[in-house]
Amino acid sequence: MPWNLGAGAIAYPLAVRWEFPEWYLFAISDECPPQQPGDDDYLTSAVALCLWRVVERLVADDAFASLPMGNPCVVSYCNHYDDEVVILRVLKWPVG
Hints:
Blueprint: H1 21-27, H2 42-60, E1 73-78, E2 85-92
């Protein structure tokens, strides 16, 4: 969580780890476009865009409506090689 909370402070903690060995093989191949100075690498950018589109589709289809939500509730991810949390969507935010 980007608010420096431990798992015990989160109402409905859920963390999922996915691994895609093929992506690593692509990233180290000559087919992967080189990283430009100051930019994320090609694969990181492509995955971020893909995840964002999936989450936006799920929100549009009201797929999160049946889930219990803490306050705040966000959909986020973190790459395996850094600790930077990327928030894709805020689903619920405290009011007042």
